[in-house]
Design brief:
seven-stranded parallel sheet; 401 residues; globular; eight-stranded mixed sheet; 15 strands; Adenosylhomocysteinase-like; alpha/beta; S-adenosyl-L-homocysteine hydrolase
């Protein structure tokens, strides 16, 4: 077997090799069928190369569907990924928007499989959610099932009727460390973008009043790292008031979304699903900076806002896109509305990403070998499996035991 391709630009693959070894050990508990095709939606991060290699070694063919936010920023990394044996990157015809069309999704699958193939879909962000009913019917004998990595992706599969199992790993407790790691990156790179493009520091409270919409793992992490930068006046809002009860004792001001948007001009949107209603944008009386934790399509429902005329794009660059509201107020989307760490090299230096990658992979492997353990529709990876991954990860990276 050729050596895995674990780095693209880093000098050494020491850390990446340790992550590869961890994922490889998890995968070796299973024997996938021959002629297996895996469709994997994934960010183009250099830190994902160990995972990509392990998936490609499991499958006869790994069909890599890059998420556009990072694919566009990392064209040369895509070339490296393409050199991984058994890995094939789809062309630009197959993307988040086009795969909403069931016929396009069917065409991608048909060109990637043979008559005797079985295939798995490892989804990230609900790319196949609009086509899943069609896929499960057309490929009823070959589609083994689907796994979904994220909460906003899972949301898109709700109320769909399909007769294949979907295993979600979006709400596992072992995802929390990676969410906090992502929160740290988002705060750090938001600060960097503000400095680069506006000459502002995120902790200059004379110019920036900071608000966080969404009090889940990512929102709580953002607040933690904002406080670490010396920001003492932070507002937080969430549609679920229960999530807000933890904040007053920690010196964070709780607020309605309406009041937060009216008083703050640096917003971290951490809901994963439509953080800012159109009516709030129409009511803005000032310019606002916005950082998101996922794509603007999901976090802000940007295409709908543009179609309705609530936002009109007026300019920008690779780090900032500027939009105008109906009242001609400027909305500055850091990183173009994608997660604020996407323009930068991320994903290495902390092994927490291997926790959720292992869970995502394990869910797919179990669908292949333990078909009778799953039913049609949505279910979660078991607590027993989650504990197993956590214990192995602690032993592998931190000598637990």
């Amino acid at each position: 077997m050729p050596s895995p391709i674990l780095t693209h630009s880093y000098y050494s693959d020491f850390f990446a090799h340790k992550g590869y070894a961890f994922l490889k050990k998890i995968s070796m508990d299973y024997t996938p069928p021959s002629n297996l095709v895996i469709f994997s939606v994934m960010h183009c991060y250099e830190g994902s190369l160990p995972y990509i290699n392990v998936l490609a070694e499991l499958a006869d063919s790994l069909v890599f569907i890059p998420k556009s936010a990072t694919a566009e920023q990392n064209q040369t990394l895509k070339e490296t990924i393409q050199t991984v044996p058994h890995c094939n990157i789809v062309d630009d015809r197959f993307n988040k928007q086009s795969l909403r069309d069931p016929q396009v999704a069917e065409a991608l699958i048909r060109q990637s499989i043979s008559a005797d193939s079985q295939f798995l879909i490892l989804d990230h962000g609900g790319y196949f959610s609009h086509a899943i009913e069609h896929i499960s019917q057309v490929f009823s004998e070959q589609c083994v099932g689907i796994t979904e990595l994220t909460a906003n992706g899972l949301y898109k599969y709700l109320n769909k009727s399909f007769d294949k199992p979907l295993v979600t790993v979006s709400h596992l407790s072992i995802k929390a460390p990676a969410d906090y790691e992502a929160s740290e990156c988002i705060v750090h790179y938001s600060d960097q973008i503000l400095r680069e493009e506006f000459g502002l520091k995120i902790n200059n409270d004379e110019f920036l009043k900071v608000g966080v919409i969404g009090a889940g793992n990512l929102g709580r992490g953002v607040i933690q790292y904002l406080k670490g930068k010396g920001i003492s006046c932070i507002q937080v809002a969430d549609i679920d008031s229960r999530k807000l009860t933890q904040f007053p004792r920690n010196g964070v001001q709780v607020s309605s979304i309406e009041r937060l948007v009216s008083q703050c001009n640096m917003l971290f949107c951490c809901t994963g699903n439509g953080a800012l209603p159109e009516a709030l944008l129409d009511s803005l009386d000032k310019s606002v900076f916005i950082a998101t934790v996922t794509s603007a399509d999901d976090e802000l429902r940007l295409p709908e806002l543009i179609e309705s005329g609530a936002l009109v794009e007026v300019g920008g660059n690779k780090l900032v896109r500027e939009y105008h509201t109906r009242n001609k107020q400027s909305i500055y989307l850091l990183a173009g509305g994608e997660s604020a760490n996407t323009p930068f090299k991320t994903g290495m230096g902390d092994p927490t990403l291997y926790l959720f990658e292992a869970a995502h992979m394990l869910a797919g492997l179990q669908l292949l070998e333990e078909e009778n353990s799953f039913t049609a529709g949505i279910q979660a990876l078991s607590e027993t499996d989650e504990i197993m991954i956590a214990e192995r990860w602690l032993r592998h990276f931190y000598n637990y035991g």
